[in-house]
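User: Predict Enoyl-CoA hydratase and 3-hydroxyacyl-CoA dehydrogenase's structure from this.
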Amino acid sequence: MRQINKVAVLGAGVMGAAIAAHLANAGIEVLLLDLVPPDAPPRGEGADRERSRIATNALSALASAKPAPLYAPAYAEYIHPGNFEDDAARLKECDWVIEVVLENLEVKLKLFAELVVPNLKPDAVLSTNTSGLSVNELARALPEEVRRRFMVTHFFNPPRYMRLMEMVPCAETDPKVLAAMAQFLGKRLGKGVVYGKDTPNFIANRIGTYAGSAAWRHMTSMGLTVEEVDAVTGPALARPKTGTFALWDLVGIDTVVRVLDNSYALLSGDDERELLRVPEEIRRMVADGLTGKKGKGGFYRRETVEGESVKVCYDYHSGSYNPCVRPKFASVAAAKQIDDPAQRVRTLLSGGDRAAQFAWLTLRDTLIYVVKRLAEIADDVVNVDNAMKWGYNWELGPFELLDALGVAEFVSRCERDGVALPDWLKEVQSFYRVEGGKKFQYLPEKHDFAEIPRPEGSVSLTLLNSAGGEVERNSAASLIDIGDGVFCLEFHSKLNTMGGETLAMIQKGIRRAEADGVGMVIANEGGAFSAGANLMLVAMAIAEGAWDDLALTVKAFQKAMMSIKYSKVPVVAAPHGLAMGGACETCLHADAINAHAETYMGLVEIGVGLIPAGGGTKEMAIRAVRLAEENGADVQPFLFRNYQNIAMGKVSSSAAELLTLGLMRQGDGITLDLDRRIHDAKLKAIALAANYRPGRPSTGIKAPGKSVASSIKVQLWNLERGGFISSYDSYLASGIADVITGGDVPGGTLITEEYLLELEREMFLKFCGQKKTLERIQHMLKKGRPLRN
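Assistant:
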């Protein structure tokens, strides 16, 4: 892989600073440069900070930016601010220079000629973050030897969270340099690379802009409201919750206008160019300062009505705002009940209401447009699909959607509508197929399928299953042979929640790995590692008063966690996305964790009126005691940190924060490339297996004791008196304090791991017997957010 140790980011605007932040997230030194302010003093002693004020202020703003561009605040130390005039020579230190200045051809050409070319290191890569300008037009300003190392590297905003990286070479770009950069961007920065062509707005924005314009056209022709359109073009259509117009508010309506204007100006040969003309209603919004979240509002905003904050929606007919009315469509409601995105879209389109009609029309037009433009914007269908999934968070790309609908059925319905289609589409049966653990895509120009290459280290549990890799399965989980003696335990329930079948497969999987392998990885695919224990089952048991069943369930959960901790082979957890409650406890009991960088983990049970009772409270108690012993220190500071994590339901904002929360330990790993996460966890399991010594349940644990619990309760009393927590919060937090300190025993009393598990079970059942706990659980199940009662 190409070694890139220092990068120069030219342009310290919002995007440039955010790109610098993500480079810092990867541990790369960054030089962040911008203009010298007009009012800055001449160069001289003490003037450096003022002359680099733009970059310095941008760096300072990263700390308060939302969403946070840095994994941890300390990572800002990797970024060094400067300015174009005084620090030009420092470009010679950099292995990669990325330009992120104003989206203006002349500005960029001047920057290249005057600043970059005279100072570029002979083997350094130069790239531009342009989202719409021609890479070949920009390359004209560069010497021939620089053109070989020049390309577009288009980050999507915000760079930390958006996986898409569009790469576009110029005519002279060296393919080896392009490939090396793609490998670096994938492995080191965690980017999903797609290759576009030198066409306006490349792939994702070309399609996304068209899809938004098509939604506007059919909305106005059908007389729908913006909130009705967003209800249809969100999860029901396998797209993000923002839908169409809330997304425009987030991106900035002025930005949408700029992209549309750019498209209209440059796509003179596009047969649907007129659809890309900015509607006058949207121009009026921008003129009135209604640019979205960054302006005075957009399609949505909040207003104070009779002393209450009310969400209002924009009426494009009158130009005024009205209170939002949640749309109710039978087709949308039916679709949202379905987990599988392909079936969800089919269900939506099969409805008989206006939402289903609108969904069909906008999806039909978008898919036809993509089919017509395929050869123009990309080399194959997988680049297009990945661009929309990684750049717009669609669950299915356009060609995956065609497969989901059935290509022949789609063609037939379009023909019934009297809509013209490219002839070659009528010959296609499907765009993808899977055989023998490999995935193939259809190449229209060859009328044949070709294997989709996978990057080195990429692991797909779905493809392994297709090749017969699954060795055990029940309704909630599977065990998959991932090679080299390592098995992977995968959950596949709704949100990967954990119930009895999951716990049974944990036990069975460990026995299989102990008998036939050298280690086990726990990893899941999809949007989240796991939302934790199945709350619905807990709520039903409480409602029925099935206390014995609840006690057995908790004991089974604890037994499964202890089997992970004391397995005869190493177990490595590889979480990503949400890893809540019981999922966090699963990770805590593994020998090691290899987390994806975007992992949001926490012991959040207090939010539903419960205590972590799958060994989570026990584990945090033992870790505090052991840390105190190792450091020859008092246990209270270590215990208070771990206690606060549970009592406040803290959730990490990144995998990097797991270390400071005590949920990861030194030696655990973080992977930025989502597709490499399981591979890296497997390597860790193999490394641990070389000299693995299974543990035994702990005895002789020095309990922090009831005096420590009492000091915690004094603080809780003060918080309750001050109105910072409710009386029930205080009640729950007091119970947690009793468990984590070892119960009603003096400090230093020797206790066992099993004793702590018993305390957990007793407190869990005690909390379950409280009316307010049931209210919290029911609220979470109904609303998806905690109730503070």
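The two ends are 54 Å apart (CA to CA).
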